[in-house]
DNA sequence: GCAAGCTGCTTCCAAAAAGTAAGTAACTGC
DNA sequence: GCAGTTACTTACTTTTTGGAAGCAGCTTGC
């Protein structure tokens, strides 16, 4: 058993913080399929706001996980693609996908409080009402 | 190239949403080491607020990822432990850990805007000032 | 037998992040 | 020169998180 209460590895904390920001996992998953443009990402994700997508892309670019390429058209287009560091993330995404396939029930979304506020049995009392 | 713009698998979306809530990955990582009590989790994570920890534990319990066991002491204690579904998550956490070890630079935290507001090269202009 | 401490949460309030919608900039086509 | 497209940004609202204090049920000290 764990006996020392070691303070988690700071690298792991950084990575968990990254994936702990909303939409990061989904964005990465899509980019695993290949480069993608802003509008295409918006469309594929469906429910993300452009404001937040823009923010995430900047975050991920700043962290060296993806790169932004501008093709000065004339029909100007920008494209986001994973760097080596970003590509290396595929194993995480892949395992997450496998876990989801095995364990996530499609019937019960369970997303952010929808449909299941509290499945808790007892109302957190110790002894009596 | 991807040509269909398939709408991501909803199971994956659910899983990504789960991990996309702040602290979820860290909580799971700690519980991988074995059962843990509320106060112990607070201590090990260090910077999470008790309010949010409580919320996350309820979420994860509602989703069947962990279970709460109350040992009615007398020195009463509650313990959180992973279910089979939760244990199965170890591969994801493991890959995330491996990625972090290989790719995360300890010197540059890059967490939520700290130290790197924008490493962006050009100020997002198309033609001229 | 009662104040003081511990664990495990919950409540209240302020700050930060995400959602919504409209706006902007550089084009294209008409 | 006006509508449409792409890629964002800005302003404003709602939700989520953080921080700290409160509270319930015990135990210990005196």
Textual characterization of the structure:
Chains A, B: It holds the Pfam family HxlR. Chains A, B: Residues 9-108 form the HTH hxlR-type domain. Chains A, B: GO terms for molecular function: DNA binding. Chains A, B: Keywords: DNA-binding, Transcription, Transcription regulation. Chains A, B: This is Helix-turn-helix transcriptional regulator. The structure is a homodimer of 129-residue chains. Chain A is mainly alpha-helical. The first copy, chain A, has a domain at 23-102: Arc Repressor Mutant, subunit A. Chain A contains 6 helices and 2 strands; from the N terminus they run ααααββαα. Chain A has helices at 10-19, 24-32, 38-45, 50-62, 84-87, 90-103, and strands spanning 66-71, 77-82. In chain A, strands 1-2 form a two-stranded antiparallel sheet. The longest helix of chain A is centred in the last third of the chain and has 14 residues, at 90-103. The model of chain A is unreliable at 1-5 and 110-129 (pLDDT under 50). At the A-B interface, helix 1, helix 2, helix 3, helix 4 and helix 6 of A face helix 1, helix 2, helix 3, helix 4 and helix 6 of B. Chain A binds a DNA duplex (30 and 30 nucleotides) through helix 3 and helix 4.
């Amino acid at each position: 058993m764990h006996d020392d209460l070691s303070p988690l590895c700071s690298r792991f904390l950084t990575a968990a913080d990254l994936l702990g920001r909303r939409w990061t996992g989904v964005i990465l998953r899509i980019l695993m399929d290949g480069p993608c443009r802003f509008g295409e990402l918006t469309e594929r994700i469906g429910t993300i706001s452009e404001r937040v997508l823009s923010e995430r892309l900047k975050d991920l670019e700043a962290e060296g996980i993806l790169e932004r390429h501008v093709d000065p058209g004339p029909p100007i287009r920008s494209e986001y693609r994973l760097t080596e560091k970003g590509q290396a993330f595929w194993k995480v995404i892949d395992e997450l996908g496998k876990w989801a396939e095995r364990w996530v029930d499609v019937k019960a979304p369970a997303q952010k409080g929808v449909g299941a506020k509290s499945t808790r049995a007892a109302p957190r009392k110790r002894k009596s009402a």
